[in-house]
Amino acid sequence: MTRLPAKHRTAYINARLLDPASGLDAPGALLAEDGRISDLGPQLFADGVPEGIQTVDCAGACLAPGLVDMRVHIREPGEEQKETMGSAGRAAAAGGVTSVVALPNTDPVIDDVAGVEYIARRAREEKRVKVYTYAAVTKGTEGRELTELGMLGEYGAVAFTDGTKAVASAQVMRRALSYAKTFGHLIVQHPEEPSLAGGAMNGGEMATRLGLPGIPSVAEVMMVERDLRLVELTGGRYHVAHVSTAATVDVIRRAKAHGLNVTCDTAPHYLTLNEIAVGDYRTFAKVSPPLRGEDDRRAVMEGLIDGTIDAIASDHAPHDQESKRLPFAIAEPGIVGLETLLPLSLQLFHSEKIGLLDLLGRITAKPADILGLKAGHLTKGSPADLLIFDLNKAGKIDPDLFESKSKNTPFEGLPVQGRVRRTVVDGRSLFEAA
Amino acid sequence: MTSAHSTTALGGYRHRHLLGIEGLTAPEILSLLDLSDGYVDLNRGSDKKKDLLVGRTVINLFFENSTRTRTSFELAAKRLGADVINMSVAWSSIKKGETLIDTAMTLNAMHPDVLVVRHPDSGAVQLLSEKVNCAVINGGDGSHEHPTQALLDALTIRRRLGTLEGLLVAICGDITHSRVARSNIHLLNTLGARVRLIAPPTLMPGQVERLGVETFHDMRKGLEGCDIVMMLRLQTERMQGSYVPSTREYYHFFGLNQEKLQAAKPNALIMHPGPMNRGVEIDSDLADDINRSVIREQVEMGVAVRMACLETLNRNLIAANAAQEQMAQ
């Protein structure tokens, strides 16, 4: 009989340690003690692991910070038939995601302190991955009255966004940026001029062929350009969600060069698919903003490589059959992403467009730093939120194996390389590959 | 479930469904037109009945109001001896849920042989076709396709001018919202005609040139040298979207009258899929000019074309079922 050690200690040995923020990429080991990283490096346990420490042999696999997904629709409260705190937590763990940030466009909307506390309580009850939440910028995401940004922040909202709706009024956006600045809070915008965004897919040849109303790509950049003027005016902190067009990448690149306080993310589907994926009215490829043309996709990729785009977020948007098995124009937009974030991102590395550490940084340290989360770093004293994965393991995306309640992915059957072996949150293994 | 491309002994059109013109080959289209020619003669005789579809059930499933198309399909099916049921389903885009799929599944359980479907949403007929075992004819889906309209237009032209090859055809009006325009663009291009689109920029869909057409915003220039002038209905229900300022202004610039028609070839034919807005997109006298307008002929050709489509799909269905039985043995 072995007795439980005084401290709960786990050694992860024979790993390829990957810490994007410090640039560490070396074989070595990591010691987690009571949920925190207490040591790591190439020399650690070079002479073997002392007795009393649980050992996980990584067998040469990569050990990186657990992924931080800054855009997740958990659908709870209100649409539990699509996803729940529990199923989202299992999906995240299976996908190597240890921190998720929940979007506030639930029913009811997370626009008051009770809502923020509800999310926190449900996350505690489920005890899975870490769940942070945005709160709405405006009450009911209706775009008119500001929420209690200050108090919501005190109760744990990590940033503010109206989710899948743009803050359309320039005056409201101006006040939001200006007021949030008092507390150092970040405003996250769904960048789309609503009066131009009434269509079902990207405007252009495909939309014309399919007879679907198109959304012109300028609908995105004009909202970002407007907002950047307001950022200049107010000095507020501003983040653009899911950038999808070349023009937006350009504008943000220039704004950053001018020293404006702006960051942005994109989703894997804007890096890997274009509007052709809509094909014969495939509603699984309907997203908001819509998949764009190939030139836009390439520009978004370039923006990721040169650092204009800071982060990749899955924009996990689960939908049941009833929301997707509809004529294209009235089907709900969205793709499930928690369980494909890693393999789809790794595609970008395998196609040699971006270095491994750089890429991992976009799904770990960068989003964590933008939102001020204690996550995304492999450093002593950090929470032991870890992802162990095989970099080259080949497989296919199989929605039937998803932990998510919803299977709405256009990536079914896609051959990918890279597989999660183990997901650890605060030193606890939440997922181990069979 | 058999594939959408199961073959028949006949050659020609071999698909299980008729969902659109895009992607069809010239021989496929021509085989349907050839078959239609025979039905024009039959329909002009006094005994119009054939028994090719006796014992078959055709359901006209219309999620959008239509009198002429539904009647045309109904008549076509009845003249071939089929049992015909008409179903009108009120549908609003706001209404969600699985109405469309539910309806398809319910009807499928009644074992129809052919479903003729019209729906206000682009792609809806294809979606429905994936859920049923019978043949499906697209009777018009949203702004996407209306294949039998393009076929009847082609038949009308071919019977008047002998061929479509080399003809210059102008399609004028609300291209953006028109399924008739899309089906005609594909069909005319496939059969070797040249297509011009004439519309104000607000009613011209983006990058439509990539479908192999020339675009014009000046009607007189667009009509220059044209053999055929196809007018489209201005969908006045969409006027509140500020696509055009008023019907008066629209008629002034894009309505077909004698004066503008001068730009086309002297004997150019005028077509319209109906129903017409007289005085909005077409001058009333011009519409009734029996020397120029073939609008009523189009209606006549409609029944013949739909008979040809029903016959063809029925044959394909029989062949597919036979092939399936053979596989099973």
Describe what this molecule looks like in 3D:
The complex is a heterodimer of chains A (434) and B (329). Chain A has 434 residues and is of the alpha/beta class. Chain A has helices at residues 85-94, 113-126, 149-154, 170-181, 205-210, 218-234, 246-257, 268-272, 294-305, 321-324, 341-350, 356-362, 365-371, and strands at 9-19, 24-33, 36-41, 54-57, 62-65, 67-72, 97-102, 130-135, 157-161, 186-189, 201-202, 214-215, 237-240, 262-266, 311-312, 386-396, 415-425, 428-432. In chain A, helix 4 (170-181) crosses helix 6, helix 6 (218-234) runs parallel beside helix 7 (246-257) and helix 7 runs parallel beside helix 9. With 329 residues, chain B is α/β, with parallel strands linked by helices. Helix content of chain B is 40%, strand content 14%. In chain B, the strands form 2 sheets. A 5-stranded parallel sheet of chain B has the order 7-6-5-8-9. A 4-stranded parallel sheet of chain B has the order 2-1-3-4. Chain B is globular. Classes of the chains: A alpha/beta (434), B alpha/beta (329). Chain A binds chain B through residues 203-205, 207-212, 214, 216, 280-281, 321-323, 325-330, and chain B through 22, 93, 96-98, 100-101, 119, 121-124, 126-127, 141-145, 179, 182, 205-208, 210-211.
Structural topology:
The complex is a heterodimer of chains A (434) and B (329).
Chain A: E1 9-19, E2 24-33, E3 36-41, E4 54-57, E5 62-65, E6 67-72, H1 85-94, E7 97-102, H2 113-126, E8 130-135, H3 149-154, E9 157-161, H4 170-181, E10 186-189, E11 201-202, H5 205-210, E12 214-215, H6 218-234, E13 237-240, H7 246-257, E14 262-266, H8 268-272, H9 294-305, E15 311-312, H10 321-324, H11 341-350, H12 356-362, H13 365-371, E16 386-396, E17 415-425, E18 428-432
Parallel strand pairs in A: 1-4, 1-5, 6-7, 7-8, 8-9, 9-10, 10-13, 11-12, 13-14, 14-15
Antiparallel strand pairs in A: 1-2, 2-3, 5-16, 16-17, 17-18
Helix pairs in contact in A: 4-6, 6-7, 7-9
Chain B: H1 26-44, E1 57-62, H2 68-79, E2 83-88, H3 99-108, E3 114-119, H4 124-129, E4 135-141, H5 147-161, E5 168-172, H6 179-190, E6 194-198, E7 214-216, H7 219-223, E8 228-231, H8 247-254, H9 258-261, E9 269-271, H10 284-288, H11 295-328
Parallel strand pairs in B: 1-2, 1-3, 3-4, 5-6, 5-8, 6-7, 8-9
Helix pairs in contact in B: 1-5, 1-11, 2-11, 5-6, 5-11
